[in-house]
């Protein structure tokens, strides 16, 4: 049993800070939403590390939007629906592809400098896109440039207050309405932050897995706290593994962008053979889930821990100009992208599921919104199309801001009662050990390939950790582990329930996609278990 709150709370004893809108997270979703809302509202932006530390910062490939004459929203829509494998919301995708170009123009107005060629925006192509529509910045540092521009705007904005190094422990609700959040300050004290609206922009869940392209901060906090608050959580079984993360002794699992394959790179097994022709007609540009599983199959067949990414047949100047960050990072480990085959293997990358929202970014709890990777708008379905994530954060961030302006004032008389739970001191085993064990369990039993047997084993292993919720938690790493444990159980339960293979969810005991039975979503609600929801993909 997972309680509503991670800590015992007596509201009469907590200091109260009031603002108009609370934004939790500082990736593209949080920064852009804060800037838009702050046109006529006071915003408190809370980030658990720094303004510049988020998944967005590490996004290399770019942002997908229709800007070329030969492209169209219809093509972008078709590509997104195909990648989503029958579980996209067609209405959510329509919003994305038609409003995405406006979002890109807004980024440029706010100071983002995208790469150009001969005075026009430079565009590249990535896996499963039918046209070149990926805008990028500084070659392969798109996320870093977007965060730089938006963070600069936030820091200068008189209506936005930023709390760095603060941890949001839980959302505060009363009568199915979100009143704000309990926040732990850097000194360990706690405060109740009250707002007219709360926007979750807290990112993804890469740290569920031992090998991930995500930074340390990606610990599934937003999904976990929304679940505890009673919000609907959807599609959690769909975790995208990026096919090509650097796999080299002593090196982090650094992302080797899909754009490298978009510019012509080959995948080779350790025998030097190209192999994607055996798995998909689009070869190296097949959807990510197919490429990732193909790589795992080749690794198993050749008894290797990696395959090679080979772009040595392209010009050295092009590689250095187009991929300066990847080139320099590989060089730090003695690998030359222009002349060496680069060892790569799949790593956890993106969470398609999250807090279920409507087209205005509203969750099932009044006054609680979600944007970015923490949300489940319906855009990504069972498998996100490359570079759609940054676009989604812009489009739905603006819609959230518009909806917040329509909200009536919240009743100040509403206050929750005190909350307590039977708790004892935290178990002696170090949290860092328990976190590593959880990550290993997820990689081994609930990763790229799953079966009933492996998933039941994962459930058995992680259920042993449930006494954590009866412990007295005081430190950030304890809250993060509680969030990882919560969300890992949602992933496993959803994967067990879905007895088919679709998109990023692959069951070895049910290897076929079954539209007749499973063209539907799995929705989790605390205290209610799982329910089904028919997909509106057409």
UniProtKB/TrEMBL annotation:
Example GO BP: 'de novo' NAD+ biosynthetic process from L-aspartate
Role description: Catalyzes the oxidation of L-aspartate to iminoaspartate.
Domain FAD-dependent oxidoreductase 2 FAD-binding residues, every copy: 20-390
Cofactor: FAD
Entry's family note: Belongs to the FAD-dependent oxidoreductase 2 family. NadB subfamily.
Organism superkingdom: Bacteria
NCBIfam families associated with the record: nadB, PRK07512.1
Record-level GO cellular component terms: cytoplasm
Xref: Gene3D superfamilies: FAD/NAD(P)-binding domain, Fumarate reductase/succinate dehydrogenase flavoprotein-like, C-terminal domain, Succinate dehydrogenase/fumarate reductase flavoprotein, catalytic domain
InterPro entries on file: FAD-dep_OxRdtase_2_FAD-bd, FAD/NAD-bd_sf, Fum_R/Succ_DH_flav-like_C_sf, Fum_Rdtase/Succ_DH_flav-like_C, NadB, Succ_DH/fumarate_Rdtase_cat_sf
Organism: Paenibacillus lemnae
Compartments where located: Cytoplasm
Active site (catalytic residues): 288
Keywords per UniProt: FAD, Flavoprotein, Oxidoreductase, Pyridine nucleotide biosynthesis
Protein name according to UniProt: L-aspartate oxidase
EC top class, as a word: oxidoreductase
Catalytic activity: L-aspartate + O2 = iminosuccinate + H2O2
Pathway annotation from the record: Cofactor biosynthesis; NAD(+) biosynthesis; iminoaspartate from L-aspartate (oxidase route): step 1/1
Ranges where the Fumarate reductase/succinate dehydrogenase flavoprotein-like C-terminal domain occurs: 435-527
One term of GO molecular function: L-aspartate oxidase activity
Its EC number(s): 1.4.3.16
